[in-house]
Amino acid sequence: MRWENLTVESGEPGESGGHGRAADAALFGADAVVTRTFDMPEFRGITFHEVRARSILNRVPGASRMPFEWTVNPYRGCTHACVYCFARKTHSYLDLDTGLGFDTQIVVKVNAPEVLRRQLASRRWQGDHVAMGTNVDCYQRAEGRYRLMPGIITALTEHANPFSILTKGTLILRDLELLTRAAQVTDVGISVSVGFTDTELWRTVEPGTPAPERRLDVVRTLGEHGIGCGVLMAPVVPFLSDHPAQLRDTVRAIAAAGATSVTPLVLHLRPGAREWFMAWLGRHHPHLVRRYERLYAEGAYAPKWYQRRITRQVHELAQEYGIGPTRAGTARRIRPAEASAAAEPPATSEPTQLTLI
């Protein structure tokens, strides 16, 4: 495994409080890696590689489509085992398998909270928005044991630093009190990923995740505690979850859970994920292999016409079920109860605005 191959990017806040850490500085050294397995049913077959990271704030590449510049990823690899996960390619940087290895070889940055606290205190840090859960899920199964997120959320709260979390994990509710406290001092955006409500599809394509209805319970619970929660309807899986009746069922369930917004994203198949997904497709839906080869013949993304069709259908359903409108971005502060009613915006018939994070 090539631990030394991962480096701190120049331009990230360094230990000394400034930018300009050498670009070839290892992100963590091989001598700092401890490998563990746990004889517990929920961790059977999973290997954890505990590392001490030298940096935890990651700058998003300039060419990225993401609407944020910084991320925090306390884990690499993910026990959610979603067959389509675009992050699978990152495991190849460690000479790890992007298929089963991604699902079962989990890198844990055990010192993430303390490193983040130090970097947030840097004089060079400008308090930019920090996104979490955009690479692998920070509330995957491992978080139940390692409990890194409470320290991370607390560090961000202490610095009143805006942040957002995207998750498929119900474990986020463990940190409800911390999120509520954070939302009183800074902008906090929570989104839950629910691409479809078909339980048979879920069992095979997202085998390590909580069921879709459990994730929608998270949306409902957060809303009941004053934290507006959007839903990333991702992925919409061509020919498996894109029938108009399926889209309607999913948007109806999202609306019933009280989501503040819904954003559809069509399945994309980057290298690393593409091979694993196509192998899965060949086993479970062999009659669709040729159709996928044609649909994704030009690259990782489905054709624009297909993406526009799905987006239009979901927009229309969202408006029909009364989701939105909302501002760009779902990050928001909790307002005092007595001020909430007075500040409530008037009813509007404008089109629903869909947001990502």
Q: Keywords, please?
A:
four-stranded mixed sheet; seven-stranded mixed sheet; 11 strands; disordered C terminus; alpha/beta; globular
Question: Can you walk me through this structure?
Answer:
This protein has 357 residues and is of the alpha/beta class. It has twelve helices and eleven strands. It has helices at 100-104, 112-120, 143-146, 149-158, 176-183, 199-205, 212-224, 244-256, 273-284, 289-295, 304-320, 337-342, and strands at 34-37, 47-51, 57-59, 70-72, 75-76, 105-109, 130-132, 163-167, 188-193, 229-236, 262-266. The strands form two sheets. The chain has a seven-stranded mixed β-sheet with strand order 3-4-7-8-9-10-11. It has a four-stranded mixed β-sheet with strand order 1-2-6-5. The longest helix has 17 residues, at 304-320. The chain is globular and about 50 Å long. It starts with 33 loop residues before the first strand and ends in a 15-residue tail after the last helix.
Q: What is the element layout, followed by pairings?
A:
Layout: E1 34-37, E2 47-51, E3 57-59, E4 70-72, E5 75-76, H1 100-104, E6 105-109, H2 112-120, E7 130-132, H3 143-146, H4 149-158, E8 163-167, H5 176-183, E9 188-193, H6 199-205, H7 212-224, E10 229-236, H8 244-256, E11 262-266, H9 273-284, H10 289-295, H11 304-320, H12 337-342
Parallel strand pairs: 2-6, 4-7, 7-8, 8-9, 9-10, 10-11
Antiparallel strand pairs: 1-2, 3-4, 5-6
Helix pairs in contact: 2-4, 4-5, 8-11
Number of H- or I-type helical stretches: 12
The total of beta strands comes to 11
Low-confidence stretches: 3-12, 14-28, 325-357
How would you describe the shape?
globular
Structural class: alpha/beta
Let me know the largest β-sheet.
7 strands, mixed
Average pLDDT for all residues: 85
The termini sit apart by 33 Å
Q: Which percent range fits the helix content?
A: 25-40%
β-sheet strand percentage: 5-15%
Side-by-side strand order of the widest sheet = 3-4-7-8-9-10-11
Helix and strand run: EEEEEHEHEHHEHEHHEHEHHHH
Radius of gyration: 20 Å
